[in-house]
């Protein structure tokens, strides 16, 4: 099983990859490695073997960190590492027999290998990838794992649906109407998602866009390092005023809005395919220019090398600032590096900027809990994953495990917006019982997604079905935040996302408000407004222009076929 707490905004965010799951309940005292995994089974795929297993009966003296599946055959050994079952071993030779086993690892060391099971990869795509076969796979998996089985239709005729997406939409319609599954269950490419969660790999211009539907304007909220957009000097605060496939086909963004709405603007930017070229008219201040930009492959830096981690000095005191864009595995070491700087500087008041973070790997969220939990006890619970009753054997508890890099904050300010979802909310929710009024939301209400997805792979078809399968709770068993976390926290301050100012600076409105709250200044609490309630229901609110054009704007809607990165990073193009 592949576990994730992903994405918010209108169906976007899902996900995790082979090895994206919450923590394992701590084991017995003493110094010992885990027991060996059991129940090894193998599913064959095109150049792949998917190894499923049962967690060992004993995790040893500390929580299990990860598992490694090793497959040996044809004179070579290939491995796959992750935090839960199954693990998919790739780059294997079709027709070659492989012997596969699994080990578990905790802080002490690795277990003995499990019993070995053999499997032979085979290219059975043509035989197993008819539409009916793919749809039947979806029906079986939803019936087995869906968190809300009582909402599923009892009789499903897959022949009534022209696509896998249409089938999923029909099967989850009742849960969607009940505001429980706001397009969080979906089908995606397993290989593309693995590439994104393992390394941040995606394709596009490398910008994050937001829009004001009332004024019919689109702004660049962020530009990513190593991308075509930043190379073209397109960055935060710029306005996108026209789009075309050439200079002669330019359409004003306001005209596209008028004719087709925000979705039309998303579609005008083209598919997320390397080589797709658009001419963009960019306005910075009073200067307008046209630039031709081609989408390219790149890897997202989850913690920006420009402003992802900072120590801000304000009013004679130093504060930590960490901006996490998305929960992917490459964030882990960067979080360790930046939070260690806070620890070494003796900083105890920290700003965590989740304003655009739609979620991702539960494992990275749990690590963030450990890194900000230097003053927590290993007996204390950070988060809990709870499955439907028939799958309760998969329930897990993540206890704090302070790291050598951990800081020990006394106050935490989380910058959030309606784009802050899933794993971002898991982190905030996990700290609420321990900080009370020493923890605050700054900005606006979060999306409201106290559920997460597992991944079930139909490897032969490269299909990964993301299924809402568990709730995320804190130590107080609180998981009732479908309307966002503003009602759950004891302190909050309303602030704009001032995209006219750089992120992580004292002059940016949300960062300024976070500093003011840390300094004990009064503020206006975040309201549960009708606009925020609409966002939590999956609707797109219109927003008003503030005095300085510091808009509380919405991320651009997902394109028709979003990439895994676009599901977890609201507004990514």
Your description of this structure?
- By secondary structure, this protein is an alpha+beta fold.
- The model is unreliable at 9-29 and 530-552 (pLDDT under 50).
- Among the domains are: 38-123, Immunoglobulin-like; 205-299, Pdz3 Domain (Roll), CATH 2.30.42; 309-384 and 396-453 and 470-539, 2-enoyl-CoA Hydratase, Chain A, domain 1.
- Helix 9 runs parallel beside helix 10 (423-435).
- The chain starts with a strand and ends in a 5-residue tail after the last helix.
- The strands form six sheets. Strands 1, 9, 21, 22, 23, 26 and 27 form a seven-stranded antiparallel beta sheet that branches.
- The protein is 21% helix and 28% strand.
Keywords:
globular; 29 strands; 573 residues; seven-stranded antiparallel sheet; Pdz3 Domain; Immunoglobulin-like; 2-enoyl-CoA Hydratase, Chain A, domain 1; 13 helices
Could you name the CATH topology of one domain? Answer: 2-enoyl-CoA Hydratase, Chain A, domain 1
CATH class of one domain: Alpha Beta
Q: C-alpha Rg, in Å?
A: 23 Å
Major sheet: size, sense and barrel closure?
A: 7 strands, antiparallel
Report the uncertain regions: 9-29, 530-552
Q: What's this, in brief?
A:
With 573 residues, the chain is α+β, with helices and mostly antiparallel strands. The strands form six sheets. Strands 1, 9, 21, 22, 23, 26 and 27 form a seven-stranded antiparallel sheet that branches. It is globular.
């Amino acid at each position: 099983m592949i576990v994730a707490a992903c994405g918010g905004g209108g169906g976007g965010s899902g996900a995790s990859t082979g090895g994206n799951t919450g923590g394992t309940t701590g084991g017995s005292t003493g110094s010992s490695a885990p027991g060996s995994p059991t129940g090894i089974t193998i599913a064959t795929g095109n150049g792949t073997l998917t190894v499923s297993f049962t967690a060992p009966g004993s995790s040893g003296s500390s929580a299990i960190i990860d598992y490694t599946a090793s497959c040996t055959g044809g004179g070579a050994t290939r491995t796959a590492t992750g935090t839960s079952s199954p693990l998919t071993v790739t780059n294997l030779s079709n027709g070659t027999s492989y012997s596969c086993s699994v080990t578990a690892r905790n802080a002490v060391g690795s277990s003995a290998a499990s019993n070995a099971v053999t499997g032979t990869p085979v290219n059975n795509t043509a035989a197993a990838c008819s539409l009916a076969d793919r749809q039947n796979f979806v029906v079986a998996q939803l019936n087995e794992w869906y968190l809300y089985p009582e909402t599923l239709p009892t009789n499903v005729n897959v022949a009534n649906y022209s696509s896998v997406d249409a089938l999923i939409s029909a099967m989850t319609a009742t849960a969607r109407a009940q505001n429980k599954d706001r397009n969080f269950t979906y089908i995606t490419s397993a290989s593309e998602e693995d590439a994104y969660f393992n390394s941040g790999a995606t394709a596009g211009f490398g910008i994050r866009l937001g829009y004001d539907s009332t004024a019919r304007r689109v702004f660049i909220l962020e530009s990513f390092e190593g991308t075509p957009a930043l190379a073209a000097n397109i960055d935060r605060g710029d306005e996108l005023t026209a789009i075309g496939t050439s200079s002669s086909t330019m359409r004003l963004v306001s005209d596209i809005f008028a004719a087709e709405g925000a979705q039309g603007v998303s579609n005008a930017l083209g598919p997320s395919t390397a080589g797709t070229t658009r001419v963009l008219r960019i306005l910075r201040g009073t200067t307008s220019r046209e630039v031709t930009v081609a989408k390219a492959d790149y890897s997202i830096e989850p913690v920006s090398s420009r402003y992802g981690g900072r120590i801000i000095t304000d009013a004679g005191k130093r504060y930590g600032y960490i901006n996490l864009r998305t929960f992917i595995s490459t964030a882990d070491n960067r979080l360790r590096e930046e939070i260690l700087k806070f620890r070494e500087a003796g900083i105890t008041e920290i700003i965590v900027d989740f304003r655009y973070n739609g979620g991702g790997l539960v494992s990275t969220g749990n690590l963030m809990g450990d890194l900000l939990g230097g003053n927590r006890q290993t007996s204390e619970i950070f988060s809990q994953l709870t499955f439907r009753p028939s799958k309760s054997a998969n329930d897990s508890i993540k206890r704090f495990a302070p790291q050598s890099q951990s800081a020990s904050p006394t106050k935490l300010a989380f910058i959030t917006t309606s784009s802050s979802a899933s794993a971002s909310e898991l982190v905030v929710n996990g700290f609420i019982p321990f900080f009370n009024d020493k923890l605050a939301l700054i900005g606006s209400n979060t999306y409201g997604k106290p559920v997460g997805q597992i991944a079930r792979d139909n490897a032969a078809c490269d299909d990964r079905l993301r299924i809402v399968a568990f709730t995320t709770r804190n130590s107080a068993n609180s998981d009732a935040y479908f309307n966002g976390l503003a009602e759950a926290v004891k302190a909050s301050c309303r602030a704009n996302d001032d995209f006219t100012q750089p992120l992580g600076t004292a002059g940016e409105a949300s960062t300024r408000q976070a500093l003011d709250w840390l300094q004990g200044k009064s503020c206006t609490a975040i309201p549960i407004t009708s606009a925020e309630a609409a966002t939590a229901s999956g609707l797109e609110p219109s927003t008003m222009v503030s005095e300085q054009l510091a808009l509380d704007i919405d991320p651009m809607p997902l394109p028709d076929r979003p990439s895994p990165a676009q599901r977890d990073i609201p507004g990514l193009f």
